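Title: Prediction job returns without error message
Component: structure pipeline
Severity: low
Priority: P3
Assignee: unassigned

Description:
Job completed but the reporter wants confirmation the result is attached to the right record. Sequence as submitted:
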Amino acid sequence: MPVTTVLFDLDGTLLPMDYDLFIKAYFGLLAEYSVPLGYNPEMLTGTVWKGTAAMVKNTGEQTNETVFWDTFCAIYGDSAREHISHFDNFYRTDFQKVRESCGYTPEAAGTVALCKELGLTAVLATNPIFPMIATESRIRWAGMKPEDFSLITTYENSRFCKPNPAYYREICRSLGVDPAECLMVGNDVSDDMPAAGVGMKVFLLTDCLLNTKGKDISNYPNGGFADLQNYIRSLC
């Protein structure tokens, strides 16, 4: 079955980054921004991680957004929901400084543009643990526009996370496509390559490779953006 749809991971794929530097900058700014509301930095950081873990374990009964805030409010109390707009505003303002911890490569936008030239559907398949406002910002940091993608997975519209196979199946259901006509492109062996398990083709981008478990990557088509573009052409 020919490929009709290309799924792109964002962090470390379309948006080059050192994950540890990104996390340090992100949590540092979030904690600083939230002190005026009485949030202890260490407790806030721990709570966000707990909310993230809950989203990763989400089994689909609720959106990731609901799961995150239910976890958050179980710790801080339900009145913390009044601060959701505060955190949304953080992503509009101080979060933009996190861009300094990320890189940029024009080949990323060029590859998404190539998909359009070939008549393929481009999907932004980033792990949906961030709200749309934060994800749209990171898309722009990578030199693209949200409109470049037919679907963007965020915590508002998703009920699963990587590496759960249900995350990839949910995307296919949303688009009405068969996994066999999809290609998943990502840099994380543990999170992105499991797409192969649902029948998708995969490509491991090695520019910012994440392979925390030291898996053999020779089983996956892999390389840089030039290799990826050649691979996409070969599937059309």
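Comment from assignee: result matches the submitted record. The chain has two domains: 5-18+102-235, 20-99.
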